[in-house]
Design a protein that fits this description.
about 0% helix, mainly beta, 4-stranded antiparallel sheet, 10 strands
Length: about 110
Amino acid sequence: EVQLVESGGGLVQAGGSLRLSCAASGFTFDDYAIGWFRQAPGKEREFVARIDPTGRRKDYADSVKGRFSIVRDNINKMLFLQMNSLKPEDTAVYYCKADGYATWGQGTQVTVDS
């Protein structure tokens, strides 16, 4: 069974930083690209960042380029999102998801206070 468990969210002041983690299990982690998505209140879930199986190719939403960095640890089956220069509009529940699987984790809440 595929499981994804996000953690690391919290309340932070604008301009601050957070590091999100996603622990994956139940599939061959280093065979799949994996990414971060977010959903703000009243809005659709949106793409944030994605990393290929090797960790060499990374794609970002325009809204987070230059501020967020996605990293994966294939040995420990972990995905991370380093978020710097946070803005109030980054407030959302953040989820990780692997390509090829429909499973979502429970998400982790990020709140950026202006």
